[in-house]
Every structure is written in structure tokens, then in C-alpha cells.
């Protein structure tokens, strides 16, 4: 969790689509309310489910990708057959499917966070690993995200361990590059300039420290922070609490993530006195560092 799998899926879907392939994405729809067998979040043209129904990540993918159907359901054998029947894809992408044994995979892309690649080395519940590190022997490609936030020595150690477990796959380093800021609930974007701005950082993601560090790299002073659990759905009371904290901390603006923004009801924000404080979303995209050309291969 929190490694950056969804930005990788989004990048891959966009590039395959641009190359002329039909792509469909299957997601579990984690934390979504949809309870049927197959939920069509988007057919590539229109979004049919809400963030509450589809889950934040699936909804975010559906909103940001044209021509790419996004489906949710706990049994991806069934959602995969549905996608094959109705959308005739050349590629089916599973967002988070390494442990989904009921579906045969042709290619396994494994994403590791450069700031904490193997958690504490233990399985759930003592650690955050779902499988032992030795299971990486199944991987066909390794992508290290947030490599810019790790030391060179740390990256060398990660690569050495990966090679020990599985010497075959290419290892590509990447970073999350900030691309824009936009008000929550609106589509107009601007340059992500936060120089000398006092900011309240709000996030419900797997790696909040990385998000906060990105804000600091953009020049922001984090005057306060509010962290929620991954995939958090925001209530009216929590929105009030966030703006109250922002006012008390004397911030210029509140900044959150794209993933959080789909779970924040803009109408709730409109109902409260924001005291002139804007809540904005920081957009990011995946940038490959080295060897960048290997991604195309």
C-alpha cells in the first residue's frame, strides 16, 4: 500500500491507448460501496459510479482516463470476462493484483516505494508485507517510486536486494513529479508554485510523509498537517475540523492529494465559513529517471 501503483497504471493505460491499443482496467474498488459482481465505473466515455460506490482509486482512474473502461468487483475473473465480452480489450490491467491468484497474468509489474521498499520486513499484522520478500521472484519488471527522496546508497541497497531475489527483471527508478494545483471541486489548474506559502497538508494515503516532503520541495512551509487512514472518506465534521485547524494555524491554503479530493464533497466545503482559505489539490504524474528508455522497451 502507498507505493504508487495507481499512477503507474494510469501512465501505462495512457501510453497503450496512445499507441492504438484498447485497454481496460480492473480494480477491486477498495472501500467502495458497490456490492454487485461487476461495476462499470466508466465505459471510457462516461463515468457511471460515484467515488463512494467505486472507491477512490477506481473513480480517480475513471475520471482521468479517456477511452479506457474501468471496472470494479472483488472477483476479477468475473470482471475480466465482462471486460473481454463488452469492451474487447487488447490489454487488461489489474490495479493491485499481485496476490489475485484466480487470474492468470502474462506480466507482473511490481512497484516499490524507494523510501520504504520492504516495510519492516515482516508480514501483516506485524509489518505491512502481504507476502515474503522472496515472492518478488514472480516479478517481470520492478519500478522504484519516489527514488528522488531516497539516498543513492539506499537505492543501491534496494537494487542489490532485488537482484538477489530475482536477477532477471529490469529495475527502473521513478519519481512523482508535481504538475498542477487546482481548487477542490474545480477543473482549472495552475502551476504548482507554493513558494513561501504556509500550508496545511491533508492526506489519507499510504505514505503521507512523501506527500508532505513534496510540498516542502515546492517551497511550502508546512504549518500544520492532518493525516487520515488510507482510502479515507471525509465527513462534514472532519471538513469543519480541517478548516478550523487551518484558521488556528494561520495558513495561506490547505493542500490535499488527488486521491483524497475524490472523497471530499465540494458541497460540504461550500456550506462552511472558510475564512478566505482555499483548499487545493496537488496533481502528480510519474516521471522515469533511469534507465528511462527501458520503460518504452
Descriptive notes:
With 297 residues, the chain is of the alpha/beta class. The radius of gyration is 19 Å and the shape is globular. The chain has helices at 5-18, 51-54, 56-64, 76-87, 152-165, 208-217, 236-249, 258-261, 266-271, 293-296, and strands at 23-27, 39-42, 70-72, 91-95, 109-113, 141-145, 170-183, 198-203, 221-227, 253-257, 278-290. The longest helix is centred in the N-terminal third of the chain and has 14 residues, at 5-18. It has ten helices and eleven strands.
- The percent range for helix content is 25-40%
Return Rg in Å.
Answer: 19 Å
Assign the structural class, choosing from mainly alpha, mainly beta, alpha/beta, alpha+beta, or little secondary structure: alpha/beta
Write down how many β-strands occur, each being a DSSP E stretch of 2 or more residues. 11
* Mean pLDDT metric: 94
Shape: globular
Strands of the largest sheet, in order across it?
5-6-7-11-10-8-9
The oligomeric state is single chain
Weakly predicted, low-confidence segments: none
SSE string: HEEHHEHEEEHEEHEHEHHEH
What is the count of helical runs? 10
- Estimated share of beta-strand residues: 15-25%
Characterize the largest beta sheet: strand count, sense, and whether it forms a barrel.
Answer: 7 strands, mixed
End-to-end separation in angstroms reads 27 Å
Amino acid at each position: 500500500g502507498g507505493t504508487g501503483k495507481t499512477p503507474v497504471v494510469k501512465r501505462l493505460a495512457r501510453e497503450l491507448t496512445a499507441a492504438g491499443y484498447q485497454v481496460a482496467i480492473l480494480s477491486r474498488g477498495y472501500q467502495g460501496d458497490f456490492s454487485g459482481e461487476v461495476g462499470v465505473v466508466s465505459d471510457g466515455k462516461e463515468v457511471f459510479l460515484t467515488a463512494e460506490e467505486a472507491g477512490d482509486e477506481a473513480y480517480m482512474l475513471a475520471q482521468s482516463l479517456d477511452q479506457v473502461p474501468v471496472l470494479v468487483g472483488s472477483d476479477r475473473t468475473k470482471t475480466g470476462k465482462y471486460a473481454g465480452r463488452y469492451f474487447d480489450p487488447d490489454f487488461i490491467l489489474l490495479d493491485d493484483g499481485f496476490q489475485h491468484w484466480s487470474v492468470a497474468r502474462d506480466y507482473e509489474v511490481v512497484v516499490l516505494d524507494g523510501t520504504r521498499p520492504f516495510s519492516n520486513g515482516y508480514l501483516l499484522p506485524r509489518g505491512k508485507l502481504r507476502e515474503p520478500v522472496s515472492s518478488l521472484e514472480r516479478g517481470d519488471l520492478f519500478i522504484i517510486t519516489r527514488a528522488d527522496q531516497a539516498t543513492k546508497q539506499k537505492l543501491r541497497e534496494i537494487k542489490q536486494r532485488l537482484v538477489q531475489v530475482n536477477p532477471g527483471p529490469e529495475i527502473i527508478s521513478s519519481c512523482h513529479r508535481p504538475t498542477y494545483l487546482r481548487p477542490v471541486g474545480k477543473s482549472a489548474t495552475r502551476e504548482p508554485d507554493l513558494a513561501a506559502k504556509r500550508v496545511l497538508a491533508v492526506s489519507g494515503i499510504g505514505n503521507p510523509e512523501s506527500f508532505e516532503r513534496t510540498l516542502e520541495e515546492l517551497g511550502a512551509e508546512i504549518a500544520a498537517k492532518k493525516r487520515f487512514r488510507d482510502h479515507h472518506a471525509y465527513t462534514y465534521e472532519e471538513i469543519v475540523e480541517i478548516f478550523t485547524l487551518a484558521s488556528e494555524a494561520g495558513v495561506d491554503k490547505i493542500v490535499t492529494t488527488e486521491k483524497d479530493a475524490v472523497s471530499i464533497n465540494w458541497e460540504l466545503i461550500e456550506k462552511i465559513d472558510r475564512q478566505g482559505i482555499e483548499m487545493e489539490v496537488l496533481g502528480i504524474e510519474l516521471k522515469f529517471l533511469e534507465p528511462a528508455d527501458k520503460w518504452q522497451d
